[in-house]
């Protein structure tokens, strides 16, 4: 899961690169034409470039950390004890019989 997240962050980080926005922003604005999102993108291009630049840096840093960072250690619960063996139980369960004498009395 960590590797998939790293790949997704890295690819979306490259797509959000401000140098790619020269091509992708007009395409996105024309795709969203007539909507509130398209109007927002066309009127606030400076904010879009700033947000894309911040996302570009953060996504590449996190993607690299997920892909090439230290592997997560196993937790105590995940590890199997090599010397552990199942304990045999000396407790015997009382078997129930279906005889009418053992059943509780019913009201008549």
Short description:
The protein has helices at 2-15, 21-31, 36-43, 45-68.
How would you sum up this structure, described in words?
The protein is an all-alpha fold and 108 residues long. It contains 4 helices and no strands. The chain has a domain at 2-68. It is elongated, with a radius of gyration of 31 Å.
Radius of gyration: 31 Å
Global shape:
elongated
Distance between the termini: 64 Å
- pLDDT average, as an integer? 80
- Main beta-sheet strand count, sense and barrel state: none
Key attributes of the depicted protein:
108 residues; mainly alpha; elongated
Write the layout of secondary structure elements.
Elements: H1 2-15, H2 21-31, H3 36-43, H4 45-68
Helix pairs in contact: 1-4, 2-3
